[in-house]
């Protein structure tokens, strides 16, 4: 296990991201980037966690804001960047509206690409790890076609960067399966009784921490993995 790490997590104010923050904050220095105003975000976060408001609907603005927050914090290197924030909109049939498509791609894909690009020097100094949070939906799934496309894009981008940055920065993509968070409600989707089969967010975050520590890619963090006891993914950062 490494010593105290410097970790940035996007979308750390709810769901899987918040559970990951709760796991890591007692042992590491964590900076959360979110869309909420600081006054709304800080009460939800563990003591000592830094926060920056950087809505990813503006990928370029958010990238500058997060880089500036690192400079303000005096962080010259970054051990882990976890690009976890995500959004989606359920559609009964067809494709999300143009505005929903723009927002989905901006938050899930464009921001991830720009943040990876901008924060590479920090990660390289630490020989760090960049973790993209995708989704099993990257294989293609009805109900959220643009969301699925954004996650497929992340998958391809992660594979490209993994080759590009080999030996300098570890790159991985982690694909969670259905997880009990507020994401479905925010997306306007009621999974009904299927929700009972979804994994709890803290369990997914635990397996995700193990996957990050193992630096494996691509990784699916799903019910099957859970039934297998988390297998390789029980390590800690
Ligand atoms: N839940 C699932 O079944 C599932 C399955 C596969 C993959 N995933 C992926 O797992 C990741 C975490 O999702 P989750 O289930 O934990 O959902 P969640 O609870 O809704 O968390 C998503 C996070 O992203 C943030 N976010 C959304 N739009 C944003 C924006 N415009 N700017 C900045 N931050 C924004 C949210 O902020 P607020 O806290 O302010 O809402 C929240 O912190 C996402 O990438 C999602 O696609 C989830």
Keywords:
binds NADP nicotinamide-adenine-dinucleotide phosphate; single chain; oxidoreductase; 7-stranded parallel β-sheet; oxidoreductase activity, acting on the CH-OH group of donors, NAD or NADP as acceptor; 237 residues; SDR family NAD(P)-dependent oxidoreductase; SDR_fam; alpha/beta; NAD(P)-bd_dom_sf; 8 helices; two-stranded parallel sheet; Rossmann fold
Describe the structure.
The protein has about 240 residues and is an alpha/beta fold. It has one domain (about 5-235): NAD(P)-binding Rossmann-like Domain (Rossmann fold, 3-Layer(aba) Sandwich). About 45% of the residues lie in helices and about 15% in strands. A seven-stranded parallel β-sheet has the order 3-2-1-4-5-6-9, sandwiched between helices. β2 (about 30-35), α2 (about 40) and β3 form a beta-alpha-beta unit. It binds NADP nicotinamide-adenine-dinucleotide phosphate. NADP nicotinamide-adenine-dinucleotide phosphate binds next to α1 and α6. Keywords: Oxidoreductase. One of its GO terms (molecular function) is oxidoreductase activity, acting on the CH-OH group of donors, NAD or NADP as acceptor. It comes from Roseitalea porphyridii. It holds the Pfam family adh_short. Belongs to the short-chain dehydrogenases/reductases (SDR) family.
């Amino acid at each position: 296990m490494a010593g105290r790490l410097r970790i940035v997590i996007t979308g750390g104010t709810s769901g899987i991201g918040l559970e990951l923050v709760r796991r890591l904050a007692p042992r590491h220095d964590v900076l959360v980037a979110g869309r909420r105003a600081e006054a709304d975000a800080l009460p939800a976060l563990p003591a000592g966690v830094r926060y920056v408001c950087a809505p990813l609907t503006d990928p370029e603005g958010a990238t500058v804001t997060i880089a500036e927050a690192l400079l303000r914090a005096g962080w010259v290197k970054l051990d882990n960047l976890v690009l976890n924030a995500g959004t989606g909109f359920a559609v009964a049939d067809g494709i999300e509206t143009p505005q929903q498509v723009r927002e989905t791609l901006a938050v899930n894909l464009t921001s991830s690409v720009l943040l990876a690009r901008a924060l590479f020097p920090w990660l390289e100094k630490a020989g760090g790890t960049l973790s993209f949070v995708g989704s099993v939906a990257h294989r293609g799934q009805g109900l959220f076609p643009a969301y699925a496309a954004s996650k497929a894009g992340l998958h391809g981008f992660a594979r490209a960067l993994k080759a590009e940055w080999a030996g300098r920065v570890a790159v991985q993509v982690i694909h969670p399966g259905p997880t009990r968070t507020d994401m479905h409600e925010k997306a306007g989707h009621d999974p009904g009784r299927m929700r009972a089969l979804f994994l709890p967010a803290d369990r997914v975050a635990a397996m995700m921490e193990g996957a990050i520590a193992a630096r494996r890619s691509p990784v699916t963090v799903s019910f099957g993995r859970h039934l297998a006891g988390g297998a390789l993914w029980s390590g800690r950062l």
